[in-house]
Amino acid sequence: xxxxxxxxxxxxxxxxxxxxxxxxxxxxxxxxxxxxxxxxxxxxxxxxxxxxxxxxxxxxxxxxxxxxxxxxxxxxxxxxxxxxxxxxxxxxxxxxxxxxxxxxxxxxxxxxxxxxxxxxxxxxxxxxxxxxxxxxxxxxxxxxxxxxxxxxxxxxxxxxxxxxxxxxxxxxxxxxxxxxxxxxxxxxxxxxxxxxxxxxxxxxxxxxxxxxxxxxxxxxxxxxxxxxxxxxxxxxxxxxxxxxxxxxxxxxxxxxxxxxxxxxxxxxxxxxxxxxxxxxxxxxxxxxx
Length: 289
Prior knowledge:
This protein has 289 residues and is α/β, with parallel strands linked by helices.
C-alpha cells in the first residue's frame, strides 16, 4: 500500500520520471481537421507542422469519465491512496471530471482515500507539482504529507511565456486578463504568466530580445530573493531561442537546465513561436504579478 500520483498529459513529464515514480498519466486529446489524437501518442514536431498547414485551429478535449475511472479504480483495488494533480480548472474540465470520478469511486470503494488538486497551471509548472508529489510518495510518506508538499511547491513556482501572437489564446478563450492587449499588438511582445489558473499580463515589451531578457531578469530577481529550486526552458518550434535562454541561465547559475517542448494541448492555445520559462524557488514567492 502506498500513495500513487495521477496527472494528465499537459504536465509533459519526461518518460524516465514517469517510469521511475510510477506516475499515471491520463491523456487529453486533440482534433485537427478530420483526425483525433491522444496527446501522449503525438510527435510534437509533426503535430506543429500539421497545425501550421491547417486552415483551422485544432480543438482539445478532456479525458472521458470512463478513462479516468479505470485509472483510479486500478490503484484503489491495489489498496493504494491517490493524489491526482491536474491542469488548471480554468483551462480545462479535466479537474472537474476527476472530482466527479472521485465521488463515484468513493461510492463503490468507501474506504479509499483520494485527494484531487487543482494545479492552477499547466505544462512544466504542473509537472513540478506532480514530480514533487511523486518523490515524496516514493519515499514512503503518507497522503497528507504528499498533498502538503504539492501545496508548498505551488507557492514557490512560476511560469512566464511570450506568444508570437495572441490569436490562439483569444480563439481558445484562455486569455484571461491578457484580453486588454487585443488590438494593440502590432509591435508589442507580451510576457504572460498564470495567476490562480488564468493567463495574465506581466509585462509588455517591444522586441523578442527584450522579452527574453525581461523573463530572465524576473527569474534572477526571484532566485536572489527566494533561492533556487529548478528551472526549465519552454518553447514551440524555436529551439534557437530556447538554447539562448538556456545558455544565459547556465552562465548565471552554473547548473544543468532543461529544455522542454510545449505540449500540443497547451500549444494550440499558445501558438507556434512561443517561448518561456518555468521554475520554482527554495522559499515561497511573495509576488506573482
